[in-house]
Amino acid sequence: MPFDIHIREVRIEYENHAYRTPLKFGGVVTDKVTLLNVIVRVGDAAGRESQGFGSMPLGNVWSFPSRSLSYDETLAAMKRLAEKCLALTVSCGETGHPVDLNVALEPLYLAAAREVETELALGEPIPKLCTLVVASPFDAAIHDAYGKLHGVSAYAALSRDFMRYDLAHYLDESFLDESLQQYVSPTPKHFMPLYHLVGAVDPLTEADVETRLHDGLAQTLPEWIEQDGLTHLKIKLNGDNLDWDVNRVARVDRLAEETQQRLGVDEWVYSLDFNERCESADYLLEFLRRVQQAAPRALDRVQYIEQPTARDLKAHPENKMHKAAAVKPVVIDESLVDYESLLLARELGYTGVALKACKGQSQALLMAAAAQKFGMFLCVQDLTCPGASFVHSAGLAAHVPPVAAIEGNGRQYCPAANVEWEKRFPSLFKVANGRIDTSAIDGPGLGATPVAD
């Protein structure tokens, strides 16, 4: 194909940031993040070259949960894997579209994870999800470089003019003669509502604030709603304490209602995130029943529910979501690591898909196509993505037509990592009337060129 590229050079860098406030994630509280930044130089048959940039948090607490390994040990494993991914990427002899390069590289990345397990004597496997997170900035950088080389947005380079294969090549025969461009818009939505995270340890009122930060940012829920005009709230729940979970939703709803009434706002919505902590689908059904009794208006405002039970769907086929999904869309998140897992999730009753840039740009695009063909609910979530990684995530949301909102909590927990990127995309990092301006994510590439470039 005339637009095919090959990889010529790869470099990686790390950024370490402390969180502004702690974040409870899947039962674990974390207060820091390490970003993996990847710079890739690509070329084409005509000798032209271009450089691309990708970035993603190494979210080890989320992607590599472990009862035997410490935070530092799982982070060290991800860094070792990143070094192997660098070597594999730079030695890749394939030519093609970024999606094709990712298809060729992913099995090698997964094999490298097995090597890291042995070399570091981890005593447990590195999850596929973890490998996808490590590989995601490499994939993003290649997509970015590809678009820049050809002078177009990476999202405008998904037609059969650019790609050798149809979607059937990557998914199955039901996608014969279809292209990604049928499911992904070449231009971004201009504005999107932003989902604000109400963390499980976040203060809701002044009485919950242990130490007032005085850094110019909001701290309580009413303050955040007033500051940013929020209309979309993502509520983190524990999944192992029904009373706490029900009361948390009811309390958030009561505070939101009081604040929105004061602001003259009539409509707002919630998403509920258990981070797979519910022991069974029955827990979720009982939770929904009790919320209906305690705060019926809160349940009415729920837009969708994220992955309530264990991420290993094959090991827990009893966790069927059909009954819960009849009440509200239930989306697959941690379990979504490939097309096979999406098909299995549908069998188990999941009715929605959470796309995440941290699983790779290529996979997110393919899953976006599949979910749309299957008529599933679609949302885009981040991994507390700051800086360039938020640009990647927001770009994905802005170019997938059914996605109605973008999650972005880096501004809450890691604003220091946004500072330089706010200079490049001031409207993207400023929330006004509950929305962000995504019109600037229009290329070339993924639109996330670092300041030094």
Could you explain how this protein is built, in words?
The strands form two sheets. Strands 4, 5, 6, 7, 8, 9, 10, 11 and 12 form a nine-stranded mixed beta sheet that branches. A three-stranded antiparallel beta sheet has the order 1-2-3. The protein is an alpha/beta fold. The chain is built from 15 helices and twelve strands. The protein is 38% helix and 19% strand. Helix 3 runs antiparallel to helix 4 and helix 6 packs parallel to helix 7. The model has no long low-confidence stretch (mean pLDDT 96). A hairpin with a 5-residue loop joins strand 2 and strand 3. It folds into two domains: 166 residues, Enolase-like, domain 1; 247 residues, Alpha-Beta Barrel (TIM Barrel).
Properties at a glance:
453 residues, alpha/beta, Enolase-like, domain 1, TIM Barrel, three-stranded antiparallel beta sheet, 19% strand
Provide a quick synopsis of the model.
This protein folds into two domains: 166 residues, 2-Layer Sandwich (Enolase-like, domain 1); 247 residues, Enolase-like C-terminal domain (TIM Barrel), CATH 3.20.20.120. The chain contains 15 helices and twelve strands. Helix 6 runs parallel beside helix 7 and helix 7 crosses helix 8.
